[in-house]
Design a protein that fits this description.
The protein is about 30% helix and about 20% strand. Strands 1, 2, 3, 4, 5, 6, 17, 18 and 21 form a 9-stranded mixed beta sheet that branches. Strands 7-16-8-9-12 form a 5-stranded parallel beta sheet. The longest helix is centred in the middle third of the chain and has 25 residues.
């Protein structure tokens, strides 16, 4: 078994993993690091998903890295452009030589005696088990399984004569020209696929159990285009990033404090684009805005294909698949040649690896998240978890900044171990307060959050920026220590063994013998 040691081990070479490596390079240049990536390419989500039209559902001024300006005029970018951006960043910071491609992490074991993690990964090229030790581990694994997406059990599925496809496993050679397509779902993937397939398919139907809020956003930012004429690229990027962060925070706050007003605005915008004769029940959710994630469509492309009749929306429940398509509970039949199950993700944390601390299994769902970044009683480890109400990278960037501050603090104080310890009187709450089906299905897999900072998940960039970039590292919630020498255990064992022998020699003189043995 091959072995290697690094100061910091990053798991995952997606948007977060490459970002973490760049932050280490910029802020902790003396630290050695490696990245374990289960697949054979950089990009994570943006390399895995290859379905038609795949794009960001956040603007690239906030989804991009804080240190790497996004220069493409399209701010709602397609998957290949985002993948190119991540690869370009990796090359710019010389990250690629540090990546171990085709290494699927199996387990991570912490030793308090040694103050190190021992991580085992299966190398897919030769099926060999590789072992690497590290002083600190950063899990940049996202929150879903890469192996397969979530697909419910549909009655009669085997009787359908056409193709059934999940977007996470999109066939490269799929020909849908002139085909009838039914897309099951109403989230970001579904609202992306409908307009992307509508021009070539005979007809596309989006079948949803319940409606989702859909908002139109501009595909390009005309303000930044003009500013580029006389301002440096970095300044334009920072201005756009600041402006869009503010807009995201404002929309989310209004959604929570004035939900009726936001609902009216969103429905009015949709009606204006769909036309007065469209049945708005398909875009009128029963919940308030941002109780579930808001879907964004660039330049209203979804509404355009619906208005032209190239696509349609059906709100109903599936009774069964049959030979020609899907029969709904209302009795309606949707005939199809291809059915796409855009039914969501199967969530997991830390890439599904087995975690042990000093020989005992670590249960993630029994821990409490510290700054939504580290877990209580889990030493020298962090997980990058972005926002659900804003761009993922906003949180990833400042989380990596904090990790670098933490590593520097440990170097300056001569400590090698850091462990968040949750207060005994802390009230527990669910980690994510969202009603989305994919969140609710996995609620028991996630850690808890507390009822006050720094244990409470705020979903607020301004608050997190202050907490992660400027607050004290040693805030009383993290225990700093050094490994305990193993010698002490050995000495204790010898003393324990000596006492019984004296006791067995003469029962009456046991106390005296014990004193001598102790001396």
């Amino acid at each position: 078994m091959s072995k290697e040691h690094v100061d910091v081990l990053i798991i995952g070479a997606g948007l977060s993993g490459i970002g973490a490596a760049c932050h280490l390079t910029r802020e902790c240049p003396g630290k050695t690091y490696a990245i374990l990536e289960g697949r054979e390419a950089v990009g994570g989500t943006w390399d895995l998903f290859r379905y038609p039209g795949i794009r960001s559902d956040s603007d690239m001024y906030t989804l991009g890295y804080s240190f790497k300006p996004w220069t493409n005029p399209k701010v709602i970018a397609d998957g290949p452009s985002i993948r190119d951006y991540i690869n370009e960043t990796a090359d710019e910071y010389n990250v690629r030589p540090h990546i171990r491609f085709g290494h699927r992490v199996q387990s991570a074991n912490w030793s308090s005696e040694e103050g190190v993690w021992t991580v085992q990964a299966r190398r897919t090229a030769d099926d060999e088990l590789v072992e690497i030790t590290a002083g600190f581990v950063i899990a940049c694994t996202g929150y879903y399984k890469y192996e397969a997406g979530y697909t419910p059990e549909f009655p009669g599925r085997d009787s359908f004569k056409g193709q059934v496809i999940h977007p996470q496993k999109w066939p490269e050679d799929l020909d849908y020209r002139g085909k009838r397509v039914v897309i099951i779902g109403s989230g970001a993937t579904a609202v992306t696929l409908v307009p992307a397939m509508a021009d070539q398919a005979a007809h596309v139907t989006m079948l949803q159990r319940s409606p989702t809020y859909v908002a139109t956003v501009p595909e390009e930012d005309p303000i930044s285009v003009q500013l580029r004429r006389f301002l440096p690229e970095k300044m334009v990027y920072r201005l756009a990033r600041t402006r869009n962060v503010g807009l995201q925070m404002l929309v989310y706050k209004l959604s929570k404090t004035r939900p009726r007003m936001m609902r009216r605005l969103l429905l009015k915008q949709a009606r204006w684009q769909l036309g007065k004769d469209f049945d708005m029940s398909h875009f009128s959710p029963s919940y308030n805005p941002w109780d579930e994630r808001l879907c964004a469509v660039p330049n209203g492309d979804l509404f355009k294909v619906l208005k032209k009749g190239k696509a349609s929306v059906v709100t109903d429940h599936i009774e069964t698949f049959n030979e020609t398509g899907i029969r709904l509970k209302s009795g309606q039949q949707l005939d199809a040649d291809i059915i796409i199950t855009a039914t969501g993700l199967d969530l997991q944390l830390l890439g599904g690896a087995e975690i042990n601390v000093d020989g005992k299994p670590f249960e993630i769902n029994q821990s409490t998240a510290y700054k939504a970044l580290m877990l209580s009683d889990l030493p020298n480890a962090a997980m990058i978890f972005g926002y659900t109400n804003a761009s993922w990278t906003l949180k990833a960037d400042i989380s990596c900044e904090y990790i670098c501050r933490l590593l520097k603090h440990m170097d300056n104080t001569g400590t090698r171990i850091c462990v968040p310890r949750v207060p005994a009187d802390m009230a527990e709450q669910p980690f994510m307060d969202m009603q989305s089906g994919y969140i609710q299905r996995a609620v028991n897999k996630f850690p808890k959050q507390g009822d006050k900072a720094p244990w409470k998940l705020k979903q607020n960039y301004a608050f997190d920026l202050a907490m992660l970039r400027y607050s004290k590292v040693d805030d009383g919630s993290v225990e700093f220590a050094n490994p305990k020498p193993a010698v002490k255990k050995t000495a204790a064992k010898k003393t324990t063994k000596a006492a019984p022998r004296k006791k067995a020699a003469t029962k009456a003189k046991a106390p005296k013998s014990a004193v001598k043995a102790s001396a």
